[in-house]
Write a structure and sequence with these properties.
124 residues, five-stranded antiparallel beta sheet, mainly beta, 5 strands
Length: 124
């Protein structure tokens, strides 16, 4: 309930809502608050990394894999201004022993890819 990303009781949190169109996937949307400004009016990259991490974690959850992040790699492609809305999508791409592999993508309002990531999660 107090998760910064999706917790309904965190007064400072983003209160993201996730959908899982198919097992092993997750999606969310977020209007970027201005307090996540990095340089000038550009969204801080740490927020985009957090959105990818959380969405990939929800993809794990939707596949029945309770897990924690052990590695996250983010590739920033295009800046996005604060105040804009982004769509984040993720999917599980493989499971090897106790490691769940995922990929995720962040898109701007025009459907352009602005960041992508890969993560490995350890099954809890």
């Amino acid at each position: 309930d107090f998760c910064f990303c999706c917790g309904s009781k965190n007064n400072k949190g983003l209160k993201l809502k996730f959908i899982c169109p198919v097992e092993g996937s997750a999606e969310t949307e977020c209007k970027i608050p201005d307090y996540f400004t990095g340089w000038k009016s550009v969204t801080h990259g740490g927020l985009l990394a957090m959105l990818l991490d959380e969405t990939m974690a929800h993809a794990c959850i939707s596949s029945g894999q309770s897990s924690v992040t052990v590695e996250l790699t983010v590739r920033y492609i295009k800046p996005v201004d604060v105040g804009e809305s982004v769509t984040v999508k993720a999917q599980v791409t493989g499971v090897k022993s106790r490691i769940v592999q995922t990929e995720g993508w962040v898109y701007n309002n025009d459907g352009e890819l602005i960041a992508k990531g890969k993560a490995r999660f350890f099954k809890a």
